[in-house]
Amino acid sequence: MLAGLDPEQRAAVTAPAGPVCILAGAGTGKTRAVTSRIAYRALTGDIAGRHVLAVTFTARAAAEMRSRLGVLGVQGVQARTFHAAALRQVRYFAPRLLAGRGMPELLDSKVRVVTLAAAKVGLRADRAAARDLSAEIEWAKSSLVEPGEYVVAAAKALRETPYEPARVADVFDAYERLKRGNGVIDFEDMLRAAVWGIEEHPDVAEQVRNQYRHFVVDEYQDVNPLQQRLLEAWLGGRDDLTVVGDASQTIYSFTGATSSYLVDFPRLHRGATVVRLVRDYRSTPQVVGLANAVISQARGTEARLRLELHGQRRPGAEPELRIFTDEPAEANAVAARCRALVAGGTPAREIAVLFRTNAQSEAYEKALSEAGVPYVLQGAERFFERPEVRQAMIALRAATRSADAGTPLPAAVVEALTAVGWAPDAPPPGGAARERWGALAALVQLAEEYAADAEAEPGLTGFCEELARRAAQQHVPTVEGVTLASLHSAKGLEWDAVFLVGLAEGTLPTTYAKTMEQVEEERRLLYVGITRAREWLWLSYATARSPGGRARRPSRFLPQLDRSGGGERAGGAGPARRAERRRPQVVSCRICGATLLAGADRKLGRCPTCPSDIDDELYERLREWRQRVAGAQKVPAYVVFTDATLTALAERKPGRTEELVAIAGIGPRKVGLYGDTVLALVAGATVDEVCPQKTSEK
Fold this sequence. Notes:
Belongs to the helicase family. UvrD subfamily. The chain is α/β, with parallel strands linked by helices. Among the domains are: about 5-90 and about 190-275, P-loop containing nucleotide triphosphate hydrolases (Rossmann fold, 3-Layer(aba) Sandwich); about 110-185, Arc Repressor Mutant, subunit A (Orthogonal Bundle), CATH 1.10.10; about 385-475; about 585-695, HRDC domain (DNA polymerase, domain 1). It is built from 28 helices and 20 strands. The strands form six sheets. A six-stranded parallel sheet has the order 3-2-6-7-1-8, sandwiched between helices. A six-stranded parallel sheet has the order 11-16-15-12-14-13, with helices on both faces. Strand 15 (about 495-500), helix 21 (about 515-530) and strand 16 form a beta-alpha-beta unit. The chain is globular and about 100 Å long. The model is unreliable at about 560-585 (pLDDT under 50).
């Protein structure tokens, strides 16, 4: 069992009983380490499998853990999500806790009850508003906040609430009363019931703690205060706890999740064993290098536990950074490359297009459909299946009967959308309401593009027919295809080829990220996206949303890459084809293959931590020659060549002009002045042969 583990994994597996914190970077084999730790302890007689409770955040992760433990020969371990574990316990103990009654009915969704609660306090909440109110209530209950405490707690947490905080608190209170009156509970109530059963009933606590004596918690950076309270109730003051997490993948703070329990674990558990897994087995060194470069700039609490990953795979393709004139051109180029990858043998299921918000999906759904590439949408409805889009299309068809023929199409679409509650001003507060607004804004953008197409059938009727055509294309059922997903829903997944799109300021980071903490979470989203790629990675942004639109800047999180590379053409066929900007060139370490981003590292052609193969004798000759030339020209030595350039020359030992100019900082002018001389020195010439002493005396 231990033979196939790397040293860090082995340290995690064999760590003694007690508090253990495994800081596991993306792709470092954390599931293998955790399951091996459970198996090692069980097979050596340290623990019994039936006394272990392993908690994950998804049913898929729990099933994977159970499967691996079965292969390792360990039976009886309970691997469940927090909710599944709590549900099992509450159901079992309900007759004892509720005077013989069974567990109350569990709500699938809060939306219906929240809508009724809003009406009771005088608010008319549509589906999007009800979803946002539900999200606020979930955040409050997960954060152990009661209705009467909500206003102060929301202010302290800088929550952007869908209504005035006092109104949200009123809805929260009405929701709780409605639930009690109807005899139902929600998922947070279920977790609270499990806590209450243990904390207030000694017999329940004794039975639970006799059953579960050893605990493992995966994705510990995503635990919220309510889940932590349940974990502490299970533990009952004991310390046989192993937690696994990566602070750099903290991306769910808006739900109440906090990395503070992971960050503070060594302080809260004196004598805890801390193990760092940093060998990345998922991605190529090029992808790993880019991920390290992005997260190395992180600030804040989570950055204290930042891990620098070390790629273990063979070198692969360089990450590609592409710049397009507008989003349709970007989407068409992505679709064309997806088609080429599939034609080249990459399974469609091993390709993903990742974006910041679900509202961005429409352009990629359309482009992939027109390119004949099947796709599946992860964690969201297809664009034309969204309720607000279906409702808008009905309103647009109705408007064709009364629209003024002289009204410009975009204006006619805006006017029709007002009938479904959309207004062309700033998006409303609340995530769901903002997604709804963004989807309808996408229809207006489509109208602007359609109106600019000289070959399109003019007017609102023609536009409705175009929308129907697109909807029909995107409703074609697919069994397997390219994955379209938001960065949040991509967490925990991986693909051979990943496209990260829309990497412009205002989108990533979103304009709604106001505080430093919110901006840093956006950076971590990009980091998560990068680390989803195994072999091939594309990053792109468009300088404008639509043709001729307002210019945008690239995301501040993108590395400052050399943009001297040759240009290419990209985009769809026909009139939609547009020019792509010159492609930035990515430089890799010539020793380990990692992507190089710092100027000095790019000049040397290697990571600062990789071993130097410098020719010391050549370096000294180059330095003496530089001193003579600088003296003759009466300029500082660095004007001729910097120390870093001399080091790069002595390490890389160029034999031809092409190899000379490949070193960053040596351009055509320097080649013209010094190229032949430097090549002669590299070939073995002495300084006196290329630059006699008398030269420096003139």
